[in-house]
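Hi V.,

You were right to ask for the full record rather than a summary. Here it is.
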Amino acid sequence: MSVSGILGWLNIRGLSVVPQFPAEIYDGQQTFVTLQLENRKKFLPSFLIRVALAGGTADFHLLDRRSVSTETVAIALAGRGWHELTQVAVISRFPINFFVRSTILPLQERCLVFPRPRRCRLLSVAEGGNARGTSLGRGRGMEGEVENIAEYSGREPLKKIHWRLSARHDTLKVKELSAVVDEPVVLDLNSLTGESLEEVLGCYAWLVNRYIRAQRPVGMIVGRKVLSPDTSALHRLKMLSELALYGKR
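Predicted structure:
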């Protein structure tokens, strides 16, 4: 028992953990974080290590002396804005499965959590007066977003037929698309009200992702700050960050 206790104690000593967060983390949605576990011991490896972070766990079966290993852990952080991660747990059942030994390692990490995207009508923001310019017209088009599913009349081109949905029915179904307009969208956060704030911010996050991934310029107004419409990935992250920190500065 004494020998196993000493071995178990040494097994979880001399370890350090560094989490590596992805560029995008959304409120309440599962995301994968890379954990880098280092064994700084000069002579002894570590066995059967479990690392627990923010409700998720990752297992490392063998970590040789003076070596580094990486695993991924799935976590979900609740609430937009900055999240401070101050500790991580290291757990092991080595060398005897009857006893569990653990230690808490301090962390000084933080990550920014974006609002959870909420699907909303593509024109709802412009109609509400919170955006200038539209990216989708009110008429029907050939290359816009899917607005409705209708019965095939024989006049629509074959590329508009929704084959997967048609296979479930006795008649052919076609996709009705909105007409595309090339004007940029500018989201104005100064017009937001306190009612359903999180839902509105989630809608804006969904719009930002949807438009930019479709290569449609999007801009944003926050206080006196103006982000000119753009379609770059860095610009998208800047706007999502503004949404994440809205009202929290």
